[in-house]
Write a structure and sequence with these properties.
Length: 141
């Protein structure tokens, strides 16, 4: 069985930021889906492929940090890379304690984002593989 192509989801309310991040990630051969809000992401997200989420901290209606918590509560486990133009240490700590892969402040270096994306995708692949192994063991039992 072959693994589905990984997807990088981007959620940022600024269209120019979404376009720039999408161009960067596509340039290294990865698939990208971009959304302007957390709600749009929930409507378009698929769980059938390794993925990660590049998430702006400041979004309309819900902050990225609250959205991170909401995803955990509804059992959506997706590695998150936070980006923000207005970060501080307590915000960074909250994000990392919540399981974020990285917390980058705008403007960030392209390579820092790409490194974080590759790390997040690998974490999701490993998580998916472990879940499949556990499901197989349970089925045999």
């Amino acid at each position: 069985m072959t693994e589905a192509a990984p997807i990088v989801y981007v959620v940022d309310d600024e269209a120019s930021v979404r376009r720039a991040i999408k161009r960067l990630i596509v340039s290294v051969g990865l698939q990208v889906e971009a959304f302007g809000s957390a709600q749009e992401f929930l409507q378009g997200w698929r769980s059938d492929a390794p993925c990660c989420l590049v998430l702006d901290v400041r979004l309309p209606k819900i902050s990225g940090l609250h959205f991170q918590r909401q995803l955990a509560e509804i059992n959506i486990h997706i590695p998150i890379i936070f980006i923000t133009g207005h970060g501080d240490i307590p915000m960074t700590v909250r994000a990392m304690k919540g399981g974020a892969v990285e917390f980058l402040t705008k403007p960030f270096h392209d390579q820092d984002l790409l490194d974080a994306v590759h790390l997040a995708l690998e974490r999701d692949r490993v998580r998916r593989q472990q879940e499949a192994e556990i499901a197989s063991i349970r089925q045999r039992l």
